[in-house]
Amino acid sequence: MNVINGKKIAQNLQASIKLKVDTLDRKPGLAVILVGDDDASEVYIRNKENACKEVGFYLEIINRFDNISQEELLFEIERLNDDDKIDGILVQLPLPKHLDVNLVNETISPKKDVDGFHSENIGKLMQNKPFLHPCTPKGVMLMLESIGVDLVGKNCVVVGASNIVGRPMACELLNAKATVTICNSKTKNLSCKLIQADIVVVAVGIPKMIQSDWIKPGAIVIDVGINRLDNGCLVGDVDFESVRNVAGWIAPVPGGVGPMTIATLLKNTLTAYEARI
Ligand code: NDP
Prior knowledge:
By secondary structure, the protein is α/β, with parallel strands linked by helices. It has two domains: about 25-110, Rossmann fold (3-Layer(aba) Sandwich); about 135-260, NAD(P)-binding Rossmann-like Domain (Rossmann fold, 3-Layer(aba) Sandwich). The protein is about 40% helix and about 15% strand. It contains ten helices and eleven strands. Strands 1-11-8-7-5-6 form a six-stranded parallel β-sheet. The chain has a three-stranded parallel β-sheet with strand order 3-2-4, sandwiched between helices. A hairpin with a 5-residue loop joins strand 9 (about 225-230) and strand 10 (about 235). The longest helix is centred in the C-terminal third of the chain and has 20 residues, at about 255-275. The relative contact order is 0.17. The model has no long low-confidence stretch (mean pLDDT about 95). The chain binds NADPH dihydro-nicotinamide-adenine-dinucleotide phosphate. The site of NADPH dihydro-nicotinamide-adenine-dinucleotide phosphate (NDP) has 25 residues, from helix 10. GO terms for molecular function: methenyltetrahydrofolate cyclohydrolase activity; methylenetetrahydrofolate dehydrogenase (NADP+) activity. Catalyzes the oxidation of 5,10-methylenetetrahydrofolate to 5,10-methenyltetrahydrofolate and then the hydrolysis of 5,10-methenyltetrahydrofolate to 10-formyltetrahydrofolate. It comes from Candidatus Vesicomyosocius endoextente. Belongs to the tetrahydrofolate dehydrogenase/cyclohydrolase family. Pathway: One-carbon metabolism; tetrahydrofolate interconversion.
């Protein structure tokens, strides 16, 4: 079994972005909007802030109270759409319940949509003509590339079908000519599907749900899940300790997909910058 070191792969990607940024007169600009004071969101934003500093991006963090109105938030996004210093806009999720996430995603210009959630960017991915990719699935693809796996004809099972992870993940794998099964909460006989998979990607949000007897020996297992246990520990959706004895490769939590998501956000921002100059 080999552990996929997402942190290291992300550092290498960030180093290559920094080299590029060092040659630029105007630095790529990222705007992050944080609504409210959710603890987890603040941690994610701090990580993004550090990563932006490391590669030399211009960063604007916009904090708004959780009673911001829908109109005020959309106005803020429109302002950033028109701001020439800004190449990428990200609204940290989750948002308070009174705000419409879809409307927020659709208001961000597709050219600055560095989370890759706008329907135009999702549509392009579906048609295998991607521009800005959803960060987490693209991060997983870069991880798979870094271990040299040939995806053509591989049986892949994606567990989880959310708009931000599972669905675009399945699409990325399909675009790479893998054979893809996508599972959701109503899937029957999940273990029978998993045991046939060469590559398993799990994004469900249930701690240690995937056990070793569901995994084909030698399979590649990518755990996207991030779950905080009552004792404060961070665990994934895969039971790492048992699955590591069966898998050929496994991405751990923490230190796996998480850093790749941030590195891909930076890559998207650079892509958006390059498309605007
Ligand atoms: P969502 O809650 O939006 O989606 C969960 C998906 O899992 C749904 O499609 C749901 O099915 C499916 N599901 C639920 N129970 C089962 C089950 N028993 N068997 C099969 N599928 C099931 O979550 P997200 O996609 O946003 O996030 C998933 C996990 O990934 C979370 O732990 C989150 O914290 C983490 N995450 C990590 C990131 C990273 O950078 N590492 C980035 C984003 C998320 P249905 O569609 O039927 O409801």
